[in-house]
# Entry
Amino acid sequence: MKIAIYGYGNLGRGVECAIMQNPDMELACVFTRRKPGEVKILTDGVKVYSAGDILSMKENIDVLIICGGSATDLPIMTPELAKNFNVIDSFDNHSNIPMHFENVNTAAEVGNNIAIISVGWDPGMFSVNRLYGGALLPVGNDYTFWGPGVSQGHSDAVRKIPRVLDARQYTIPVEAALESVRAGNTPELAVRQKHKRQCFVVAEDNADKAEIERSIVTMPAYFADYDTTVNFITAEEMERNHSRIPHGGVVIRSGATGPNLENNHIIEYNLKLGSNPEFTSSVLVAYARAAYKMRSRGITGCKTVFDVAPADLSILTPEEIRARLL
Amino acid sequence: MKIAIYGYGNLGRGVECAIMQNPDMELACVFTRRKPGEVKILTDGVKVYSAGDILSMKENIDVLIICGGSATDLPIMTPELAKNFNVIDSFDNHSNIPMHFENVNTAAEVGNNIAIISVGWDPGMFSVNRLYGGALLPVGNDYTFWGPGVSQGHSDAVRKIPRVLDARQYTIPVEAALESVRAGNTPELAVRQKHKRQCFVVAEDNADKAEIERSIVTMPAYFADYDTTVNFITAEEMERNHSRIPHGGVVIRSGATGPNLENNHIIEYNLKLGSNPEFTSSVLVAYARAAYKMRSRGITGCKTVFDVAPADLSILTPEEIRARLL
# Structure
């Protein structure tokens, strides 16, 4: 199947790498809003086109993976592109998903295409596991913890403070809360009890570090409700120790069964990701395969990870899956 | 939807409890191969019938959950019943699944019914997670660890040793192996390196305990390839400390992404189950809902957990799922 990439940043590069790991796929082409000549990709012999030229490539693309931002790109791009292509996106603004779904669904139905939105790990694999957990253990509680990992939004917020040159913010689950949930307790956890925040900051030479720290830990919404530690480091330390983009987290369903709910069960789905964008990209590519298979069975309209049967994600045949994995 | 139970042992009782947790379901009736008058169930006003009378109830049952053993019951029962009912089973003889699938598929197609086989946690949720893991991280390794938990087969094997009155065998993952895999190593693990076995044995008063221990730890296939510890206890201790049937385990996918595979990722699915049969029953009931929804869309034939989209397991509407869980 021929997969194209729309937008070539961290996520687009990750998609390109993931396609190389899947021998049933080939990269058809890459679209960019930059000048195509200035975008250098990894795959030999594959062309980069201007985003504006995409309609001319319509016949050469089975599924288009849209690698844009959720704030302003995807709400416009995905409905527009779904009119002409089978598309996948990673729209992650949870509260706007129902509206995005409706817009994309209308466009995909008009174009007789399939679109799978909000693909990644949260939303995405975490969502699937929240659903499985609740379906298997209807009497129970859901817990989602994020991290340890880099939050781009929180890092950006720190970078905007005057005299801060660079910053990296790690979101870290509070171990005591995690252990309590894993032990089968079902605690009610306040925001501060679930996650803590750790910042690494490069400041200007003669900056007032105490003032910067105060600005961080009191920042409403981002930090004020959390226990936050701030570490000032050099630019070299930042480069050496904090250039990767790890992330991860945990979805736990804690439930009970039996005539008197006397048996407790814990279902935990745990991700430790060396690279947040590369893992997200790998999920996008697996769901691109599903989109291809589902469309070839005549399925159109907007779908989410909830609508995709696991078998459609696999490169293996149904017979192989049953013999090897069941 | 009206769910019926075929076979009322540990699993059937668990199914009955699970149905009570799902307000969109009701227990239609229970079938037994014992005398119906001797089977006492938990649900008021629901009748127990002889297994032989099942065809007379055909119009009152949407999905039949077959709670039989995999060795001799299900290979006969599931194809036979799939001719007349939508059915779910927990067939768990991994190497015979392809043959069972074919037999059930033929029968279900003849009867225009849907059948979902090999539902539970392994096969079942573990299988689904092996599939997701391999699809998301094609370059990587799979690991499955079982336990800590009671193995019925190994407990039975110990009980058959002369002068053993009762026995309980726990399968326990080797912590060092588990930690190595979680740390992103991809070790090749021999049988002995993955699991150890712990036996609790009630022996006759003047039995030769050393001889019993020797019989256990040298038993081919069951114990000889494992590090096994044997503890002799009293019947009272057995009753007090070992009457529950916990189980669980872990499926891990360890994979790498990036142009030079420089980023490692760990996906872990972890179950800690207070009651093995009750959790299996809960999974069976969730897939009974999926069978009902899929059949109402015209889908027939034999399916497995790989063919079931997560949304079909949920009591929630598609809109509710997207708004609350995505």
Summary: Chain B touches chain A through 70 residues (CB under 8 Å). Residues 2-122+277-324 of chain B form a domain with the Rossmann fold fold (CATH 3.40.50.720). Chain B has a mean pLDDT of 97.
